[in-house]
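Page 47, continued from p. 46.
Same chain as before, 124 aa.
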Amino acid sequence: MDTHALIWWLLGSEGLSERATRAIETSEAPVWVSAASAWEIATKYRIGKLPAAGEIATGLVDHINTAGFEMMDITFEDANDAGGLPGPHRDPFDRLLIAQAGRRGLPVITTDGVFQTYGVPVIW
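Result:
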């Protein structure tokens, strides 16, 4: 799950598409949340880009556990793959999510079409 989709889910926002909401609610497979999203939320909250995400930033592990999601650590291989991805995409958080999804053969719930350019299936 991309970070914006995670935030929208946790805040109960209407920003998620019907397809994304169904995928989260009805998935028999685990819904994975990357440590990259924890890093992104904490960073953007700290610098003022996510002022509404204070409770999420300070209690993210509890929120993920309550939602029944699985936490995905960042491995050395994930970081290496993310750094080596071709193309101009510069967002380090997205690059990590792309690398992790690609390495594990997972789709990503996201509105960001750049994931598909890297061969990662997108649910939206």
